[in-house]
Amino acid sequence: MVEQKGTKANADNGSCKKMYWYIKKIKYRVMYKIKLREMDRLWEYMGGSCWGLFPPSFYYTHTKEEIERITIETIESCQKMLDEF
To answer: Which residue, 3, 33, 38, 55, shows the most beta carbons closer than 10 Å to its own?
Structure first.
């Protein structure tokens, strides 16, 4: 069967390519989140929660400015709790 340009079959082929791209993107996001979760579990298992302020995934998912701002807010909050104690 010879297909002509502009037929429904060609339009469906474009839709399939878009669907494949969306599925591939979703798969990448899910695999990335699983990788971050495993990284955090290993960090916690190795005792990182005792010495680190945030888990490793935090540093992969936030910008440098956000990290600095949130770190300052967290330290101030902890200092306030210690002062009240």
So the answer is: 55
Alpha-carbon distance of 56 to 38, in angstroms, equals: 10
pLDDT computed for residue 11 by the predictor: 54
60 and 36 Cβ atoms separated by less than 8 Å: yes
Spell 63-73 as b/e; 16+ CB within 10 A means b. eeeeeeeeeee
The DSSP secondary-structure symbol of 21 reads H
14 lies in a domain?
A: yes
State the pTM of this model: 0.64
Q: Point out the residues of the chain with pLDDT beneath 50.
A: 1
Q: Please report where in the chains the tokens 């990788």 appear, as a residue.
A: 35
Q: Is residue 3 part of a domain?
A: no
Tally of domains in the chain: 1
pLDDT at 5: 58
